[in-house]
Amino acid sequence: MPFLSAALDRVKPSATIAVTDKARALKAAGRNVIGLGAGEPDFDTPANIKLAAIHAIEAGKTKYTDVGGIPELKAAIIAKFQRENGLTYTPNQVVVSTGGKQVLYNALMATINPGDEVIIPAPYWVSYPEMVALAGGEPVPVVCTAEFGFKLQPAALEAAITPKTKWIILNSPSNPTGAAYSRAELKALTDVLVKHPQVWIMTDDMYEHLVYDDFTFSTPAQIEPKLFDRTLTVNGVSKAYSMTGWRIGYAGGPAELIKAMTTIQSQSTSNPSSIAQWAAVEALNGPQDFIPVNNETFKERRDLVVSMLNQAKGISCPRPEGAFYVYPSCAGTIGKTSPTGKVIANDEDFVTELLETEGVAVVQGSAFGLGPAFRISYATKTTDLEDACKRIQRFCGDLR
Question: Rounded to two decimals, what is the model's pTM?
Answer without folding.
Answer: 0.95
